[in-house]
Structure to design on (264 residues):
């Protein structure tokens, strides 16, 4: 039986995620607290792993109930705790010192800061897919692949690439339900350079993208809408959630059902 095995929230875009037992849907379709904050430079540009590999060296531990983040530099035992609301200026100063240039922490309580603004819902992948993809790369574990992919929703009880049924050849949305929350699957998620690096040290994995593309094409199930792949550096599925689902919640163990297709 397909079921919800993991829910991962990333309170500050590009930093570490936290595993939660449930998550509430915002009117925008995003999960509450996911990418609620983003680090930006003086020009308002995101400071993220795509453009700054130094991000990988930041360890972050969040307490959503206390609204705090504990920051630590990889390999350094020193830790610093900041309140996300009351100590924003001190937090920005610590981050600016770490990066070596001035940064600010922006907040968006309504939509967060999703990578795909057209499909701002949680990204979906299966546990079996993560296991399969990790097997393509010696010394890359399931947990390491999970950290690289950074999906919000992980489905277990299904085979590898199960989530590839959540988009269609025509571009129509594929409707599915997690517990009592209705989702629309839209497209396979385009990956970036972040996937090619060790999530904790930023060390590039040799020939990662080339190997990934070859194996992704080779293992693509025959029933998948291959026309949706202009290239094969894609994994997990982007989603939307209607405003009618606002304030509903998903919970670990919720059953997952794919039930219809409708025009996107």
């Amino acid at each position: 039986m397909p079921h919800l095995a993991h829910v991962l929230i990333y309170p500050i875009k590009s930093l570490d995620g936290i595993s939660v037992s449930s998550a509430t849907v915002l009117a925008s379709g995003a999960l509450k607290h996911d990418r609620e904050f983003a680090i930006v430079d003086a020009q308002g540009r995101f400071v993220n792993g795509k453009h700054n590999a130094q991000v990988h060296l930041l360890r972050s531990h969040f307490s959503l109930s206390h609204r705090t983040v504990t920051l630590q530099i990889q390999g350094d035992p020193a830790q610093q705790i900041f309140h996300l609301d009351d100590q924003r200026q001190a937090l920005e100063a610590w981050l600016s010192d770490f990066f070596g240039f001035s940064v600010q922490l922006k907040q968006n309580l309504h939509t967060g800061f999703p990578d795909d603004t057209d499909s701002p819902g949680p990204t979906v992948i299966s546990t079996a897919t993560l296991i399969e993809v990790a097997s393509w790369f010696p010394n890359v574990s399931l947990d390491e692949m999970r950290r690289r992919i950074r999906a919000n929703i992980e489905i277990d009880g299904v085979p590898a690439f199960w989530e590839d049924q959540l988009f269609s050849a025509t571009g129509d949305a594929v409707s599915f339900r997690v517990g009592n929350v209705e989702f629309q699957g839209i497209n396979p998620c385009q990956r970036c350079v972040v996937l090619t690096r060790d999530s904790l040290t930023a060390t590039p994995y040799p020939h990662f993208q080339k190997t990934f593309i070859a194996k992704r094409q080779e293992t693509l199930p025959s029933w998948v809408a291959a026309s949706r792949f202009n290239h094969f550096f894609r994994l997990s599925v982007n989603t939307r959630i209607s405003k009618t689902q606002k304030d509903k919640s998903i919970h670990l163990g919720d059953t997952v059902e794919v039930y219809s297709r409708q025009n996107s």
Observations:
- Residues 68 and 83 are 4 Å apart (CA to CA).
- Helices lie at 88-99, 127-135, 142-149, 208-219.
- The chain has a mean pLDDT of 96.
- The radius of gyration is 18 Å.
